[in-house]
Specification:
Blueprint: H1 2-21, H2 31-37, H3 40-54, E1 55-56, E2 59-60, H4 67-82, H5 85-102
Antiparallel strand pairs: 1-2
Helix pairs in contact: 4-5
Length: about 100
């Protein structure tokens, strides 16, 4: 049953991507749909990162000593200032490590 579910999900994913990426097929999205889909990336990223940042040991952690929060703030600031993925990741990890070390 699990293998069948994985196979069906793989077929659905391939089918939807093939329809929109194959240039010879007459499937085109309207401007409203394209605008609507442009919000899906930030929405998914937010849904993934917020629990990692704020939930620890099944408790909401909004403490100022939360190293995940400091790492995320440094990464956002680096992304805004540099627009470089390497600086963003590096400064985020550095801030997280420093905050983890200082909170011990």
């Amino acid at each position: 049953m699990i293998a069948m579910t994985i196979l069906l999900l793989a077929c659905i994913t391939f089918g939807t991507r093939y329809l929109f990426l194959e240039g010879r097929l007459p499937v085109r999205l309207g401007s409203n749909i394209k605008l609507f889909l442009s919000y899906s990336g930030p929405a998914v990223l937010t849904a993934i990162t917020v629990p990692i940042l704020f939930v620890h040991e099944k408790q909401l952690d909004t403490n100022i000593a939360n190293p995940y929060l400091w790492g995320a703030l440094a990464a956002v600031a680096a992304a805004y200032k540099t627009a470089n993925i390497y600086w963003t990741v590096g400064l985020g990890i550095l801030a997280f490590a420093a905050a983890s070390y200082l909170s011990l």
